[in-house]
Predict the structure.
Amino acid sequence: MENLTIHDAPPPGAPQQGGRAGGPHIQQALGRGAPPPPQQPQQLPPQMFTTAAQLLDLTDKKLLICLRDGRKLTGILRSWDQFANLVLQSTVERVYATLPEATDESAVKGYYADKPHGIFLVRGENVLLLGEIDLDKDDEPPAGFEERDYKTVDQMAKERKALDRAKEKTKLKKLATLGFEGENIGEVLL
Amino acid sequence: MCAPSADERLRNSFFKTLIDNQVTVELKNDIQIRGTLKSVDQYLNIKLDDISVLDDLKYPHLSSVKNVFIRGSVVRYVHLPHNAVDVTLLEDATRREAANQAQKAK
């Protein structure tokens, strides 16, 4: 592990299923859209501080992935590369709708729903964060949230999002008149 | 993307001194995540352990998550613990780096 470069395949034994060949495969799949592979750095940081090393111990684990458009996916991470392009197995999208009047004390804070998807290849730039799911806690839904059918929750979440977006838009407009440029204009990250 | 520049290297080694400290990472979507800093790489991707979300009513999805990998491009701030930063050391390193740069430019 110590003397590997980020261009080396992960050591055998760690991500056996596809993890090994992940990098090049994903890059081919993404074709010309993908940024070119980085040149060999002259002075390599210690192996521990590379993207690859950070993702290595998340491989084959059940993860929560937050995307830039606000989607939350859970799935098993099977493959990845240095741009954090990811391959997920048994992906499930979970939507949350927090009730507008909910507070910390309310019994029902909101609803959630699941939608199974299967295998996903996620382009790295769309990833906000990856979280390893604690399998002990995974069986219980988040405290105060109840499951409803997907259509209802999705509708609620969309309405909420539209509301937030409108709010954000007025805020950005106001800021723009004061000479501030928002860093993510036109995009509400949730 | 190519060879890390001098200030990149400096920033990297600075973050390495903060490993195992409690930090709060604020993302561009206003989520604040507090946890133990585990590693930082060249893109400032951050790995945190034992995380807690500051406003978990608004962000319920992280309730069953124990550690996170945050993509560097979505980080707005990293709040550092005051006592973990050796300001004198950092200043010295920065001056040395600046001096090196000036030397090179000549």
